[in-house]
């Protein structure tokens, strides 16, 4: 019985041991022993239902400034403070190519209900930054054993959008691009 209580207290205590860097004029460097290098975590930033939003924001206290976070990534790429990379092959993507992802011309074939033929229609597809559904982070995790404090350092960020079939069925996530906060980790291709 005592071991169950100890386990319960430990599990409840762990989240309070995590610390995060406060953004300021100097870079926050984690301290302690490196526990994980390049670990992947994710943050869902669009909630499908009000119930899910309640659990994430209400119960877990999770509050993400969606617009600030997404705009900061795009602005950093467009200003040249960072560079975008293809998620799959690691090749650099120019700021112009990122802009094309935000607005592109596409060809659709739509069935004409009167004739039954497939008519070609040219459309402009615009990415609404609010549609970025999930962000993947690459992180290094550190443990300061003396103070039992955990910290993380984000090394890369990948923005994704949800993809749907023509029937509106959810297919999965599509990575737009990745950016590296630590340029030494950029894949050499």
The N- to C-terminal Cα distance equals 55 Å
Give the spatial strand order of the biggest sheet.
1-6-7-8-2-3
Beta percentage is 35-45%
State the order of secondary-structure elements, H for helix, E for strand.
HEHHEEHEEEEE
User: Which regions have little confidence, pLDDT < 50, spanning 5+ residues?
Assistant: 1-26
Global morphology: elongated
Taking all residues together, what is the mean pLDDT? 77
Structural class estimated from helices and strands: alpha+beta
How would a textbook summarize the main sheet?
6 strands, antiparallel
Number of strands: 8
What report would you give on this structure?
With 189 residues, the protein is an alpha+beta fold. It has a domain of 127 residues. Helices cover 25% and strands 39% of the residues. The protein is built from 4 helices and 8 strands. The strands form 2 sheets. It has a 6-stranded antiparallel beta sheet. Strand 4 and strand 5 form a beta hairpin. Helix 3 packs across helix 4. The longest helix is centred in the first third of the chain and has 16 residues. The N and C termini lie far apart (55 Å). The N terminus is likely disordered.
Task: Offer a concise description of the structure.
With 189 residues, the chain is α+β, with helices and mostly antiparallel strands.
